[in-house]
Specification:
Blueprint (H helix, E strand, L loop, with lengths): L1 E2 L1 H9 L4 E3 L6 E5 L3 H11 L8 E3 L3 H7 E2 L5 H8 L4 E7 L6 H4 L4 E5 L4 H10 L2 E2 L14 H8 L5 E2 L11 E6 L2 E6 L9 H4 L29 E4 L10 E4 L10 E4 L6 H17 L4 E4 L7 H13 L4
Parallel strand pairs: 1-9, 4-7, 6-10, 12-15, 13-14, 13-15
Antiparallel strand pairs: 2-3, 3-8, 4-8, 5-6, 6-7, 10-11
Helix pairs in contact: 1-6, 9-10
Bound molecules: threonylcarbamoyladenylate (TXA) and magnesium ion.
């Protein structure tokens, strides 16, 4: 069920959880000030309570209001990448950020989204807590229809059209005197080099005794369909290919195109939509062409496909 901006503000203020567009993916939003509504997000998504949520705000002064002890270069990062698909993990002012939001950690994740509708909404509602608007483990939603697919056709969603980026925000945190990535995302690691003077590395799952980015431990982005990730000997186990439009594949297989190898931004934008299409068409397995560059946005695309291909 699609909401106007006015209806969306009203619902959020009265404690409802609704779908909200951003430039990355749709979020499942609740007011930062209403713990009861925040709890509903976890129930709706079937999300473990140990997986914290991102706080979305309209302006940098709100980031400072909820956080403390900012690491070196934080302001430079904030000015370069906000509003935008950048999420920063900072020390929380514990009394101001409910433990449910931060899964009892002492840190909180913050983002200032660039999408105009979201900005307007945030200016009318105040801070919103939102994870991606998908059932836990499923591909994220990049269209209002996807939110309805996961939560029912009467679920309230503020319409925002197709998300421009199509991949979640890139998460940075400060650890051992340097910035590292908690999650690859819509901003490539290379983009941070001019500000930091180095390329932030992705923290590895196995390095995380007490996980620094808990969400990375769970199954993610997965359709029902089995993904065969480029293994040649398994090519004939399916008759569908997830591949690129300029490539010639055997005519025995039907191509579902991810777009062009020259346009990683377009591939990113459509990725979750194509993964969801597999299930809409009840395709049981698909061979994925993994032969693409291994830098910039392609790294995030490869990581999402690998996670989507993991067994439950
Ligand atoms: O693009 C996005 O980031 C979207 C849109 C809606 O903003 N949101 C999103 O939220 O992807 P979610 O909940 O699907 O992913 C948030 C990730 C999770 O992996 C979570 O573990 C991590 O952020 N996270 C949140 N708070 C954290 C914290 N305090 N410390 C470490 N990781 C945190
Ligand atoms: Mg998510």
């Amino acid at each position: 069920m699609r909401l106007s901006l006015v209806e969306a503000v009203k619902q959020l203020k009265s404690g409802e959880v609704i779908g909200v567009p951003t430039e990355t993916v749709y979020g499942l939003a609740a007011s930062l000030h209403l713990p009861h509504s925040i709890k509903k997000i976890f129930e709706l998504k079937k999300r473990p309570l140990i997986n914290p949520l991102i706080v979305h705000v309209a302006a940098l002064r709100e980031v400072f209001f909820y956080t403390q002890d900012h690491p070196p270069l934080f302001e430079e990062l904030a000015k370069a990448f906000w509003p935008g698909p950048f999420t920063c993990i900072l020390q929380a002012k514990l009394k101001l950020v409910h433990p449910l939001i931060r899964a009892n950690l002492t840190t909180v994740a913050l983002r200032i989204p660039a999408c105009k509708v979201t900005q307007k909404l945030l200016s009318l509602t105040g801070p919103l807590v939102m994870p991606s608007a998908n059932l836990s483990g499923r591909p994220s939603s990049t269209l209002a229809e996807h939110v309805e697919e996961d939560f029912g056709r009467f679920f309230p969603v503020l319409e925002g059209g197709a998300c421009v980026k199509g991949l979640e925000s890139t998460i940075l945190l400060y650890q051992d005197n340097k910035w590292v990535m908690g999650r690859l995302g819509a901003l490539a690691a290379e983009e941070f080099e001019s500000i930091l003077g180095y390329r932030p590395q992705l923290i590895q799952k196995k390095d995380q005794e007490s996980p620094l980015c808990p969400g990375q431990l769970f199954r993610h982005y997965a359709p029902q369909a089995r993904l065969i990730l480029g293994e040649e000997k398994l090519f004939n186990q399916t008759s569908v290919i997830l591949g690129f439009k300029e490539r010639c594949y055997p005519s025995s297989h039907r191509l579902i195109s991810l777009g062009s190898l020259d346009q990683p931004e377009q591939v990113a934008k459509q990725l979750y939509q194509k993964l969801r299409q597999l299930d809409q068409e009840k395709i049981e397995s698909v061979w994925v062409d993994m032969d693409f560059p291994s830098d910039r946005l392609w790294l995030t695309i490869a990581e999402r496909l690998k996670r989507a291909g993991e067994k439950a």
